[in-house]
User: Fold this.
Amino acid sequence: MKLAYYPGCSLKGTSFEYEVSLLKILEAMNIEVKEIPDWNCCGASAAHSINHNLSVALPARNLAIAEKDGFESVLAPCAACSNRLKNAAYELKNDDILKEKITDSLEMPYNSEMSINNMLEFLIGVVGKDKIKSMVTKPLAGLKVASYYGCLLVRPPKVMQFDDPENPVTMDELVALTGAEPVNYSFKTECCGAINSLSKPDVVMALTGNILYDIKKHGADLVVVACPLCHSNLDVRQKEIERKYDEKIGLPVLFITELLGLSFGIDPKNLAIDGHMVAADRVLKKIEGLTNQQ
Amino acid sequence: MKTVINEQNRRNFASKVESMLHDKLAKCYQCGKCSAGCPVNFEMDYTPNQIIKMTELGMEDRVLNSKTIWLCVSCNTCSTRCPKGFEVTGIMDVLREIAEKKGIASKTEREVQMFHEVFLDNVRSNGRIFELELVGKYKLKTRHLFRDMFLAPKMLEKGKLKMYGEKISNLNQIAKIFKDFE
Assistant:
């Protein structure tokens, strides 16, 4: 099966670590993906917030190009992109009038058959647990990892059709495959404030603070995410949150692809782990110590 | 406070929202579950269930000028938990879109609204988001030039801020999408 790759804007900018690490682990597993030619921004939260039709038309262009190029399946690692692509595919399937307007505007047909996968769906569903397990050469036994899912991977469930919207477990299963211990806590799917990071920083810090302090309380060594926006809020804003609430957090936030890469024995430098604002040195040292003991 | 609402105006507004939403306002029986689970309820002037009822009652001005519609981050917790399957997140999108088309500038949450506008302008001119340009233009527009600036040096050092943006080749098609749907 030909697999299309839709990176989205964040993976080419502030969340470059996500792209670097995911391409590295796919290469290690011999899985080939091809970037959708001349892809455009999905419109993210801005489009659906103020213009519904635009929020369907922008992702639709990418889906139509992928279809024209003979792809049947798209990997959209950014949670927001996968959410918008899935929403557009859902609307195109259920609203014939809007679909006709959009395909007329694009001057491209679209058959509504594209299967869209977020990163976790892709790893579990397309790659498969057995394959991933066979790649783990440096088990991370002894490491405690909290999986933070946020909103966009699981909600709205009728459109996302992925995992449980209140208590998802897919990322925890991936964590367990690396040999690390998944940490249970309360804020797995609570919102981090997402797009309002720049416009309402105080609100975002309150929400993100709740998540980080709860993870800390449950004894995790680090957090893993599968969303660039979640990563930005949890990582980039962490120091400021510590200052605001006058309590140390010190939790490195890794993309799930980075954690998998570490367990595959890939050098942290090649996974761009030094690109995060909260240094992961302590965790990397702990991993080194753990794997030496084995 | 205007307490008397013209019945025809009430109907017009409610049915306009319903047709854009593809859902019925009367489905909501005011249990308040949406508002209990809303992560940003503490900042809102009206809770989500109040917004639904006010829309049904035709309180157009209040709803379109509320803080609530702009504070909603579309996390979808409300719609996911709604026992009636009402599109609570969807109604916020619809109300924002109506406010935007009417040219109503939010008095209290103008920055949220501006961010959306600047974001879409960036998509229109590049086809993709060029983050540095987006943040720069947003800061110029809101005049919050120095807020968050302390993050910039370290982000730059980490390679998170790209100096150049990518433009897509077929910008004509993007222009056409905006022309047809804006």
User: Anything to note?
Assistant: Residues 7-101 of chain B form one domain.
